[in-house]
C-alpha cells in the first residue's frame, strides 16, 4: 500500500494535514493523487492507444486474420495514422494476435514425360523483368475436398504478382492448364504475343496440345529444371501463400465449395492483399500505377 493509499484509508478518522505530515508527503501531492483516482476520462495518450488497438484489430480481421505488423502498419499509414511498425508489433503481441508466415514450399505434382522435348529456360530465374506481361509463371498444386482430390492451376504475371487466370478440376490433364491459359489471355484482352509462359517440366506443359495453344496465343514457352523449386519460384511462392493464408484454414465439403472459396480468396489476393514485393500495395493497384507511369513517360 502506498502512502497516499494509506492516507485515503485513514482520512475518515484523522486530519489529512496530520497524516501527510506524519507520512512525509505534501497535501497538494495527496490531493493530486486523489484527483487522478477519481478521473474517469482516459488521458490523451491512453485514448490514442485504445483507438490504435481498435484500428489494428479491424485491419487484422479485414485481412482475414493473415496480416502481420508490416502490412497492418501499411494499412494504417494509408489511412493517415502515423505509427511505427515496432509499435504495431508490440500492440499485436499484447493483444495476442499475429499474422501468417508462409512456410517453405515443396514440389509434389510434377510428372515428367520421358519422351517429351523441352523448350529452353528463357527466364534464368529472373522472373520480374521490369514490365507487365514479360513473364508469366504457371504450375499445378494438389488440393482436396469432401468429394475427393482436386488440382489447381494458375497463371501469374511476375511483374505485378497478379493471378491472371486459374482453373481447378479433379484431374491433372492438359485441359486444366489450357483453361487457366485461356483465362489469363482473356484477362489481358487477347494481346499477349511475345509473353513468356514459364513452367516446370510436367507432362501437361510439354504436351502437344498445350504447345499448340501457346502458339495460337503467341506465348513463348519456357521451362526450368525438374524438381528444382527455385526454377519456378514465382508459382511456388503463390502456392505457399494460398495454402497457408486460405486453404489450410478452411474445410471444403464439395468441389463447388472449394471453387467458390478459391474465387473469393484470389479476388482478395489480386485486389486487396498488400504485397511486400510491390511496396505494400495490391497487384491491381500496382498495375494501375504502372500503366499510368507508362502513359506519362
From TrEMBL:
Pfam families: HTH_21, rve, rve_2. InterPro entries: HTH-like_dom, Integrase_cat-core, RNaseH-like_sf, RNaseH_sf, Transpos_IS3, Transposase_IS3/IS150/IS904. SUPFAM superfamilies: Ribonuclease H-like. Residues 115-291 form the Integrase catalytic domain. One of its GO terms (biological process) is DNA integration. Involved in the transposition of the insertion sequence. This is Integrase, catalytic region. It comes from Mycolicibacterium vanbaalenii (strain DSM 7251 / JCM 13017 / BCRC 16820 / KCTC 9966 / NRRL B-24157 / PYR-1).
